[in-house]
């Protein structure tokens, strides 16, 4: 009698377990379409938020078109425009600027060069939309151009790899590529530009690379002041071409000079030619005295 009772009880437990399992499976099966539907709704909601942000972004008022064909093209500049710098992210962790904005080798250097190593992560400076992902052998190498919601466009050049595609939305700090030495480059670095309506503005106007921060929450661009800065920069460029061995204060600013190494030169011969010392060249370029310079290498000497 007891054995029969235990047998019936065991059968009941097994049947209950099977029923519970079947019920659970039914719930999972019922939940799958719901999860898929919610995921679709989340995607649509996110897309709606992004489209709303784009429509309300200052950049929508500055640029007449969207194109994946050209790196930059100058359009009409506003008389004044406030650039929101909040929500930024430094494009890389490096604090070392190896080449400044402005006069260099008789022409204008439209951005700044930041020391990075091949494979270092390069990140979007602000939120926005990727406009260009291309390769330019005689210039930028592998580069990316992003149009940001605050009105700026940023250019990231000489990368070894891309991590984004054209027309992709990115957030500030999102990886967009890897540091490299592609294109017209003499060593691994990031060429970084900031442009408004296609016009290059010194990135240090917005970013403090030494302290890995922006200069303020916003920057007021004024066309009149910008034109004066361009004219002043052009004058400094002409003076630099006329007397490349001189490093003086001109128009209230110090002109930084660089030397392009040719075959057969050494640190000692460059120091003698530029009227400086090997110690100073090594200190400014973060190299040791026993390094062997190579043709085409760019060295700062003042």
Provide the structure class.
Answer: alpha+beta
| Main beta sheet strand tally, sense and closure | 8 strands, antiparallel
End-to-end separation? 104 Å
SSE sequence, one letter per element: HHEEEEEEEEEEEEEEEEEHEEEHHE
Flag low-confidence runs.
233-254
Number of helical stretches of at least 4 residues: 5
- Mean of the pLDDT scores? 79
The helix fraction, in percent, is: 25-40%
Oligomer: single chain
- CA-based shape: globular
Radius of gyration (CA) equals 29 Å
Count of beta strands? 21
Strand content range: 25-35%
Question: What does this molecule look like?
Answer:
By secondary structure, this protein is α+β, with helices and mostly antiparallel strands. Helix content is 31%, strand content 27%. The strands form seven sheets. Strands 2, 5, 7, 8, 9, 11, 13 and 14 form an eight-stranded antiparallel sheet that branches. Strand 3 and strand 4 form a beta hairpin. The longest helix has 55 residues, at 2-56.
Give the helix/strand layout.
Blueprint: H1 2-56, H2 59-62, E1 80-84, E2 97-99, E3 102-104, E4 107-109, E5 112-114, E6 121-123, E7 128-136, E8 141-148, E9 152-159, E10 161-162, E11 169-170, E12 175-178, E13 190-196, E14 199-201, E15 207-208, E16 213-214, E17 218-222, H3 223-242, E18 249-250, E19 253-254, E20 258-260, H4 267-273, H5 278-285, E21 298-300
Antiparallel strand pairs: 1-17, 2-5, 3-4, 5-13, 6-12, 7-8, 7-11, 8-9, 9-13, 10-12, 13-14, 15-16, 18-19, 20-21
